[in-house]
Amino acid sequence: MSLLDVRNVHKSYDNGVEILRNVNFSMERKECLGLVGESGCGKSTLARLILQIESFDKGSILFEGTELQNKSERSLKPYRKNIQAVLQNPASALNPKLRIKDSLMDPYLQFGSQVNLKYFTYTSEANFIGQLLETVELPRSFAERYPHELSGGQKQRVTIARAISIEPALIILDEPASSLDVLSQAALLKLLGGLRETLDTSYLFISHDLSAVQEMSQRIMVMKGGVIVDSFEKEQLFCSDRHSYTKELISMFE
Question: A GO BP term, please (predicted)?
Answer without folding.
Answer: transmembrane transport
